[in-house]
Amino acid sequence: MASANRGQRPVVRVHEGYRYEDGIEQIGRLMARYDALRRVEIGTSVLGKSIAALVIGNGPEHIHVNAAVHANEWITAPLLLRFMEELAAGQESGAGPESSGCPGRELLDRLTLWAVPMANPDGMNLSQDGLWPACPYREQLLVWNGGSDNFSGWKANIRGVDLNDQFPAGWEEERARRGSDGPASQDYGGSEPLCEPEAAALAGLTRRLRFSRVASLHTQGREIYWNYRELEPACSEALANRLASVSGYKAVKLTGSDAGYKDWFISEFRRPGFTIEAGEGVNPLPAGQFETIYAEIKPLLTEFIRG
Ligand SMILES: [Zn+2]
Prior knowledge:
Bound molecules: zinc ion
Shape: globular
CATH topology: Aminopeptidase
Number of domains: 1
Number of strands: 8
CATH architecture: 3-Layer(aba) Sandwich
Order of helices and strands: HEEEHHHEHHHHEEHEHEH
Mean pLDDT: 94
CATH class: Alpha Beta
Structural class: alpha/beta
Number of helices: 11
Low-confidence stretches: 1-5
């Protein structure tokens, strides 16, 4: 029987070299500890790895947070998993917002939160491990990576497609702006929108559940992007300002960017969508920054789910 984690060490911890399999193992342990969490498969990666959603809440309003869309922004995966762990612990202990800093049962009777912590499983492992012995696309990956076997700067999926340039919102404009016409470590949007299974999985989930708001966790810069071509609803800016005030991050109105997940969400649903650039430094951010960044992201995500 699951119980709240009072007095227990958190399941979600990090180390240098944290990989997709570490995240999956922690999801399994969270499921064993907390009855409040459900796991749903939303798709599979190019190499057949499960893209898992962790779900909490029983409300009719569905909201969504994803992470690690960009391969070397791995630290966002455990950031989101830790947040889910604390939500689940708060649910099961009955702790309200005052005692835990996390939303209590009342909110999660109204909402269902769908978290996809590792949206780019193959890319995450490539960035963390480099090429492994049986890695498919091995020769191509070396070429796409400019001849280097150091993949720590890799953001794309295993086919060299930048998943945050894959969405059908100004996709052609983004392609022309990037000037990237073939697979690469970043900025190549693919042969057509949503041709990669990881991006298609996020789009499919979003269309099925028609989320009322979404956030996508990236690193780095301590910024919040909230607009897209004046298509966002009026409430987006105010919510971004609240996310900024609780986290110390800066709400930024961005122009000259298309084809990202939040861009597409805003253009298709005309509802609030955010890209959160967590932490500060050079990607991949080191594991040693995890607790510092989590202290900023926890109040930000708490405010996001309150809406
Ligand atoms: Zn990113």
